[in-house]
Amino acid sequence: MNKKKAAQIVQKLASEYPDARPALEFENNFQLLIAVMLSAQCTDERVNKVTRVLFKEYDTPDKFLTLTADELGKKIFSCGLYRSKAEHILSTCKDLVEKYGGEVPCTIEELRTLAGVGRKTANVVYSVGCGGDAIAVDTHVFRVSNRIGLAKAKNVLATEKQLMEIIEKPLWSASHHYLIFHGRRVCKAQRPACETCVLRDLCEYIDKK
Fold first, then answer.
1. Of 68, 129, 151, 162, which is the most exposed, with the fewest CB atoms less than 10 Å away?
2. Which residue numbers are catalytic?
């Protein structure tokens, strides 16, 4: 696919989803960071239910560090993978306190130094919380971008790199949300609604059906 066609796809998605935005609820970058960490293999709706309670009492790294991993695990149990998530969150909070004065850093490089923070999490915080240009590749972005032809990759890292090459940098962050919305509402994993899709004249998947 060429950049002209990619731009047309992004433009159509922008018109279709003018309300595209993060589904996670947060009031600051620290809450965003914790919410994204909890969202791994978990729905945003479930994460929001947990954080609405969790953030009322624990809204800073210092307050999280008053908890043991077992105690935090019980509070985030319903998000799944609660043991590893609790350990990662507490390690991240420790790093934030010791290295960054309790504040969330705003460069991808610094975010990636935090224990338990991977590439996708760093990209989300950087783009959503810090206003930077980044594409975070989750399951929706990976599926949709490779299905419609924006990328042709076998893993998330290659997908991210290809999307960064074909989409103009100022549109990276917005495109991330457009692709998520499209994946949730139309281009679903099972039985995508191709007949009503705004991209049906541009999509390579339809051409192969």
1. 68
2. 120, 138
A 10 A CB-CB count for 34 gives: 27
Indicate the pLDDT class of residue 207, thresholds 50, 70 and 90.
Answer: low
Which alpha helices (H) appear in the chain, and where do they start and end? 3-16, 29-38, 44-57, 61-64, 69-75, 82-100, 108-112, 119-124, 139-148, 156-166, 172-185, 204-208
Say how far apart CA 99 and CA 110 lie, in whole Å.
10
Q: Which CATH number is 29-129 given?
A: 1.10.340.30
pLDDT digits (tens, 9 = 90+) for 17-48: 999 999 999 999 999 999 999 999 899 999 99
Location of each CATH 1.10.340.30 domain in the chain: 29-129
With contact defined as beta carbons under 8 Å apart, do 79 and 47 qualify? yes
Q: Within 13 A of 88's CA, how many CA atoms are on the CB side?
A: 21
Query: pTM (2 decimals)?
Result: 0.91
